[in-house]
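QA checklist item 7 of 12: single-chain prediction sanity check.
[x] sequence parsed
[x] length recorded as 249
[x] structure emitted
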Amino acid sequence: MVKNERQRIIIDKIRVEKKVSSSVLAEELSVSEDTIRRDLNELDGKGLLSKIHGGAVSTIQKLYHYNDNVIVNSDKKEIIANKASTLIKNGMSIIISGGTTNLAFVRLLPKELKITIYTYCLPIAMELTGHPNIEIIFIGGKIHKKAMVTVGIDVIQKLAKIKADMCFIGTGSLDVDNGITEGSYEVALMKKAMIEVSNATVSLVTSNKLGLKQSYHVCSLTEVDAVVTDLDIDNELLLEYQKSGVNIL
């Protein structure tokens, strides 16, 4: 089979299925996986699909697709998501930051939930379109292509006009003395803005990020109303946080 015909079949397949596997394509088209990888790289370069680990997704699907293989600590994030979902009640207005922990969180929200969610994260906004009773308000601005979030002063100004019951912050690092810190100045500013307009702040943090400090300060621990981790609440790693008075889930 000549290359043009093979690539046409790949494009047709991805339009229907939205996601394809390199190994499956190689078997179906009777070529090597190296050949398929070269095809996918070429089609990605033309903007006809988006190459991911092990295959490709449609260019539209990329907006909200996170390859499960690159979501580290997925089991921990699912535990966090289940705990965090208990904090939400019908009628609430909430803000959700970006990140794979928050993506796991919104995936587990009950379909019958009736709330309003503000977010500047494209994958989260797209994921929420599957929840018929959730009103989604996407905060637009300059798109950070790698992280698939909007960033910049426009986003911060729009956040400043919101009044939310609660914000859920995917947390880069958390410790008792320094609170929430991040490795990016822009990310820290966005999260500060979220906290300022929310009645309550919830930190979603995997246990491997506890006790760490990064360059840019977001807020002190006293400004956090609840910390949701993958650990049992009686875990000794959480003792110093409990002593500080913060609610631990």
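[x] summary fact logged: The chain has two domains: 3-63, 70-248.
[ ] second reviewer sign-off
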